[in-house]
Specification:
heterodimer, A: 495 residues, alpha+beta, Uridine Diphospho-n-acetylenolpyruvylglucosamine Reductase, domain 2, Uridine Diphospho-n-acetylenolpyruvylglucosamine Reductase, domain 3, Alpha-Beta Plaits, 4 domains, eight-stranded antiparallel beta sheet, five-stranded antiparallel beta sheet, 18 helices, 35% helix, 19% strand, globular, B: 412 residues, 3 domains, four-stranded antiparallel beta sheet, 14 helices, 18 strands
């Protein structure tokens, strides 16, 4: 993976930039010492590191606007950063750019129960929203696994998901409005506490744009009433196919559970030996289903799902009879990543999505690829929405093993696209999957996406080197070429 | 509209050909399916028609994957019937404004439903149109076919252009295929109707239902007495009083237990009736389609605003405009019907909204004569920075401005 070549002239002007940035953010808001910059040299994708020219930590919208306008004027690249938990390198710094750290925007601005929403600054953590409203019986639905530390701003940039997406949606489905600052310093509001856009849905496309379009300085998110009851079922299957079929049967019965997770044999064994929650060890696949609602509704759903599970050949079936038991069912699934960390020095988490029906085929293919590359793989899977998380086990101390793990990951993602899926379900493209984009998209597809960026950031200063494998100039993308032999009036002037 | 010709492409390749021909000839295009939604938005002035009705048919429907792929010219009736056979539906509850505009029922296409971006009562809890768009294939104003999104539920690969295309009224590109998320129809549904509340009490009731009950109400609407009287449902029109409707949907008998829970939370709000399945569906279809305002030449608006100030805005508009109104989305949407005037009361309605909601909300003209829609903005003008950005975005899809020129904003 190559980042765009750093501009030596820009690096030479560092002292000049620091003076100007200090003028905008006085005090300790501009970090430039080599040692201090180390804390920002990578995000959750730790294989890639790069110290930026400086890190700027603004505290006000006006400062953000002035910083961006300054960068726009001098042609300085900007990498926005929330809590730095991206698993795809979305916040990887550039040698000739600055990092705009939004950590000081850490205030919950307003809790508005009457409109069932919360207004937060982007540095607020995902979980802090739920914590702020839990005592009134509300919660914020998107729950990425990093929710204790990841920030709302980063969630918006990545369109973060979690285990409850099929029923409750991803970040974009729970985001009502934002305040956005463009690279030229323009501050605007998109959406608000009302539900639908008045015209073009710019909010919809900014969410998930991985910091390439602008910087979010405030967000209004929807909160939901906490379900009265949640219960979980654990179903063990002797074949992965049966577990996949069971998921399809549940949906065919008109049930959208709060969560449906599948773990394969390797993941089950690793999790069980790590947390000892009583997962069956004689099964090939474990299906964890969570249903929520009123007590009576949940009881019915547990019965229905249990019956469907048996029809699909579940050899073991347990349903949680207490909150403690429900949490213990989840404990193994939630510990899957650290559990893999116990059995392997390093692991690499892949994030493709496939049509659910392709699950058995995908797991067979992953097994074959695992043998081909000589690396073990454990599979956990958000089965309800087809989001696959193969965990590739490797040892970075062994020469070439990281590269082999990455190649195996890429092979899995190519297969996801081949069966009708996509490269990333919730972790984002970033730098990690950037060079695979052409597997999923044609040149015309990517051109249209990059044209959108031109409307927001014509100079390409916002987070360059991410998402798109080839950087195209806006002038080049904007040219109209008339295709085909059907030109009826070739002499007519066009604009 | 000036029309000097029409293209009727039969597939995506022919759409590419048509767009390139139009580009070469410097002709602008009005994009239509069955043209059933021409009454929404500004009238288009274009050189030629791009008739997409031949792009018709469900390409893939996989109920167990919750995915439907259809050509944009596929009739809504076909989509609905296909989904109903597997007990599924479009959860955002697409409204049918046909009769409101004096046209036929269910005359539109799926392309029109998605491109005009309107959602019905379940929008409150199930998301809007754009939340159900998984992928789009289209031809841009460069004459190039492109695709965005995919066919899976969870996808963050690249910019989510599908959200932008939904509700873009054909001003960005010519959609040639839509991939939609479909969901199981709730096996059971019923509606609790509380009778006789004034607007403010109704708003509080809807808020209690949403915030303090475990019933998980999927939709909440309030019909003042004069609107309730226009319902074709006896149990709504009969009592001669206002009706506040709260819908509960779900599996089996849980619906009944949630109804009991809802009643407990509401306490002694007023006399109630319960609508079972068919009656409930009928009532929500009327609300979705604004059916109370069918007939006549009055002008109809729909406002989107923070739900908590719904009743304040609604009663204020009622005082100023002497028309009828009702609430959906627990107060977050207000339908307003006003007597016919040349500016459709646009200035007045938007002033009231601005005074009470600031910039947080907007009013869209849903029914009026074409000359009114041409002379005022049917879509509320946006802040200058947002309008400028929107225009830059539009030009990145259609630099020559050949698709539905002027449909959303007056084209310079």
């Amino acid at each position: 993976m190559q980042m765009p070549a750093a501009d030596a002239e820009m690096i030479e002007r560092r002292a000049e930039f620091l003076v100007a940035l200090r003028d905008i953010v006085p005090g300790e808001g501009v970090i430039h010492e080599h040692a201090a910059l180390a804390a920002y040299e990578c995000d959750g994708l730790m294989a890639y590191r790069q110290r930026p020219m400086a890190v700027v930590l603004p505290e006000t919208v006006q400062q953000v606007s002035r910083i961006l306008a300054y960068c726009h004027n001098v042609g300085l690249k900007v990498v926005p950063r929330g809590a730095g938990t991206s698993l795809s390198g979305g916040a990887l710094p550039l040698a000739d750019g600055i990092v705009l750290g939004m950590g000081k925007f850490n205030r919950i601005v307003e809790i508005d129960y009457n409109n069932r929403c919360v207004v937060v600054q982007p540095g607020v953590t995902n979980l802090a929203i739920t914590e702020a409203v839990a005592d009134r019986g509300f919660y914020y639905a998107p729950d990425p696994s990093s929710q204790i530390v990841c920030s709302v701003g980063g969630n918006i940039a990545e369109n973060a998901g979690g285990v409850h997406c099929l029923k409750y949606g991803m970040t974009s489905n729970n985001l009502l409005g934002i305040e956005l600052v463009l690279i030229d310093g323009t501050v605007m509001r998109l959406g608000g506490k009302h539900l639908d856009p008045q015209a073009l849905d710019l909010l919809g496309v900014v969410c998930g744009s991985e910091g390439l379009l602008g910087v979010v300085t405030e967000a209004t998110v929807r909160i939901l009433r906490t379900p009265e009851t949640q219960r979980a079922l654990l179903l063990g299957f002797s074949e992965v196919e049966s577990a996949g079929a069971c998921v399809a049967e549940v949906i065919a019965a008109g049930i959208i559970p709060a969560a449906m997770e599948i773990m394969d044999r390797t993941a089950i064994h690793a999790a069980e030996s790590f947390v000892h929650v009583g997962y069956p060890l004689d099964v090939e696949a474990l299906l964890l289903v969570e249903v929520d609602g009123t007590a009576e509704e949940v009881e019915q759903l547990v019965d229905l799902v249990g019956a469907l599970g048996k029809q699909c050949g579940a050899g073991s079936l347990r349903s949680s009879s207490s909150e403690a038991e429900r949490i213990s069912f989840w404990a193994g699934r939630k510990a899957a990543f650290p559990a893999i960390g116990q059995i392997s020095p390093d692991y690499y988490c892949v994030d493709g999505t496939i049509p659910r029906g392709a699950l058995p085929r995908a797991l067979r293919q992953i097994t074959a690829l695992s043998a081909e590359f000589g690396l073990r793989v454990a599979n956990v899977f958000h089965a309800g929405d087809g989001n696959l998380h193969p965990l590739i086990l490797y040892d970075a101390d062994n020469d070439g093993e990281l590269e082999r793990a990455e190649e195996l990951g890429a092979a899995i993602l190519r297969f996801c696209v081949e069966v009708g899926g996509v490269l990333t379900g919730e972790h984002g493209v970033g730098v990690e999957k950037r060079d695979l984009m052409e597997v999923q998209f044609s040149k015309a597809d990517l051109d249209q996406q990059q044209r959108l960026k031109c409307a927001f950031d014509v100079g390409g200063l916002m987070n360059p080197g991410k998402v798109f494998p080839k950087l195209r100039r806006c002038a080049e993308l904007g040219r109209v070429h008339v295709h085909g032999g059907a030109v009826r009036f070739p002499d007519i002037e066009r604009f | 509209m000036t029309v000097c010709g029409a293209w009727t492409p039969a597939n995506a390749t022919e759409v590419v050909g048509a767009v390139n021909e139009a580009l070469a000839a410097d002709l602008s295009l009005e994009l239509v399916g069955t043209a059933s939604r021409r009454s929404l938005g500004r009238p288009v002035v274009a050189d030629a028609v791009l008739d997409l009705s031949a792009l018709n048919g469900i390409v893939v429907y996989e109920p167990e994957e919750l995915v439907l792929v259809a050509a944009p010219g596929t009739p809504m009736a076909d989509v609905r019937q296909a989904l109903a056979q597997s007990d599924q539906h479009l959860a955002f509850e697409p409204p049918d404004f046909g009769p409101l505009w004096g046209g036929a029922e269910e005359a539109g296409t799926i392309g029109g439903a998605i491109l005009t971006g309107r959602a019905g009562p379940r929008r409150l809890t199930a998301g809007g149109v754009r939340d159900h768009v998984l992928g789009v294939k289209a031809v841009n104003g460069f004459g190039e076919a492109f695709a965005t999104g995919g066919r899976v539920m969870k996808n963050v690969t690249g910019f989510d252009l599908g959200k932008l295309v939904a509700g873009s009224f054909g001003t960005l590109c010519v959609v040639t295929e839509l991939t939609l998320k479909v969901l199981p129809q709730p096996p059971n549904t019923l509606t609790l109707v509380v009778l006789g509340l004034d607007d403010h009490a109704a708003l509080r009731t809807m808020q209690i239902a949403m915030n303090e009950s475990s019933a998980r109400v999927s939709s909440a609407a309030h019909l003042p007495a004069d609107v309730a009287a226009a319902s074709t449902l006896d149990r709504i029109a009969g009592p001669g009083s206002a009706a506040t409707l709260l819908r509960i949907e779900g599996v089996g008998s849980s619906v009944a237990s949630r109804l009991a829970d809802l009643k407990r939370a509401l306490g002694d709000a007023g006399p109630t009736v319960v609508l079972e399945r068919d009656e409930s569906d009928h009532a929500w279809a009327e609300i979705s389609d604004g059916a109370f305002f069918v007939g006549g030449d009055s002008q109809v608006w729909r406002l989107s605003l923070p739900p908590a100030i719904g009743a304040v805005v609604g009663t204020c508009l009622r005082r100023e405009l002497a028309g009828r109104h009702f609430y959906d989305w627990a107060g977050g949407a207000i339908w307003v019907e006003t007597p016919k005037v040349i500016d459709a009361h646009a200035t007045q309605i938007r002033r009231v909204l601005r005074e009470l909601a600031g910039d947080d909300g907007h009013a869209t003209l849903i029914r009026s004569a074409a000359e009114v829609r041409a002379s005022i903005d049917p879509f509320q003008p946006r802040a200058p920075a947002v309008a400028a950005l929107s225009e830059r975005v539009r030009r990145q899809f259609d630099p020559a401005g050949i698709f539905n020129p002027g449909r959303m904003t007056e084209q310079v």
